[in-house]
Amino acid sequence: MAVKLGAWLRDRRTLVATIGLAVAAGLAQWLLHWLGPAPAGTAFEGPPRSGYVLHEARISTYDKAGQPSLHLQSPRIERREADASLYVDAPTFQLPAGRPGVPDWQGQAARGWVNQGATLATLDGNVVMQRAAYGDTPQAEIHTADLKLWPQDKKLATAAPAQLTEGATRIHGVGMRADLNQQHLELLDDVHATFPPQQRRNQARVCAPGSAADAAGACQAERPQPADAGRGAAL
To answer: Comparing C-alpha atoms, which of 185, 201, 183 is closest to residue 97?
Structure first.
């Protein structure tokens, strides 16, 4: 019987070799599966923060006291994924005065940007701000090419040429900063101003640069003169 089995195996060497290789390959795969390292899984980090676009949108921000600090409208606002900031087309905006009887500042620009926390906004392209007249204070306008705005502090700044018009008073210069809470605006360089003869209260209060009154925030009324009348004006 053993002789016959041996002869059978010799006659079928190729078949036996093939079966042996298949068994060995299967055993190797089984050992690799049970003894090898576990395959690295795909980490789940949640869905990405996607951007979006809003059309005919209105945004309002509030200060720490819960009072409105900025209202902004735009035909198109895009939120970017990278920093969650807002890119604004043709914005119009309002800065609430927060004082009874005082009108809000209204503004517009070609484009704008608002950071994630709405603590900083930048406006670019023919920036115009207007405040209506109230009491004996005439209408005011600010014109500049670009503007940084801190809504919660009601502060403005630009390094570009700027012009303030209040009634018949006109002041223009290069660089500007303003504190709307304090009703004070200051032009920083190359300042020129024109004041009407009769209107010298409020809109014609000017601070001489470097003076004690300037440092103290008090403004000295000046007679009308065409150039370099001063740097600061009450709003």
So the answer is: 183
